[in-house]
Amino acid sequence: MGVEGLWSLLNHSAEEESLLKISLDRNFRKEHHKGDKLLKIGIDASIWIRQSQAVFFKPGHATAGENPELRTLFFKLSQLLSACILAIFIFDGPLRPSVKRGKNVVASPHWLTEDFQRLINAFGFFSHQAPGEAEAELAQLNAAGLIDGILTDDSDVFVFGATHVIRSSILSSNNTDNVTVYTLDKIKSDAQVCLTHEDIILIALLVGGDYDPCT
């Protein structure tokens, strides 16, 4: 998902750290004692919904119990809550492209959407529907400074202009708190990476991505 090979190109500029440590460092800095203190992280809701259904692609899914998707989402949200962050989940909107990787995109909301939104609200987090593609909305919110970072495993956010990206095992079934952090400043300054946003766009055009009609 995203631009093939982009993560590997950027890895040398990345840093691994505890999500809780990142959050606490942000929350208790003196400059944040006025106004919002919590680390604001944006998340593409569709990724979590898709990964919550992974049980159906494994042997023995019939014994997974009642509502395994919601149970998975519940535990993922619990991990975020324990990290002391403010999560904002972005859902795809009606103007998202109708074709993705050569396949038609289902226009109607996913059947888990309403229940997932209820869980999000119950945990004290927020949800928002983008006009179109959720990843594009997240990148713009990040570039504008309205969220501190994006928690995702979709490299498209770099193409859309994200400046702070967190790639995390929270998006998988692993319980570790470690995350990999990418910032546009380090991507540009790292001697072994040295890529600007414009360079990343060029790579996406050459390699192809989710909305390339040739992929």
From TrEMBL:
One of its GO terms (molecular function) is 5'-flap endonuclease activity. InterPro entries: PIN-like_dom_sf (IPR029060), XPG-I_dom (IPR006086), XPG/Rad2 (IPR006084), XPG_DNA_repair_N (IPR006085). Residues 1-114 form the XPG N-terminal domain. Gene3D superfamilies: 5'-nuclease. Pfam families: XPG_I, XPG_N. Coiled coil: none annotated. GO terms for biological process: DNA damage response. SUPFAM superfamilies: PIN domain-like. Residues 121-193 form the XPG-I domain. It comes from the Eukaryota. This is XPG-I domain-containing protein.
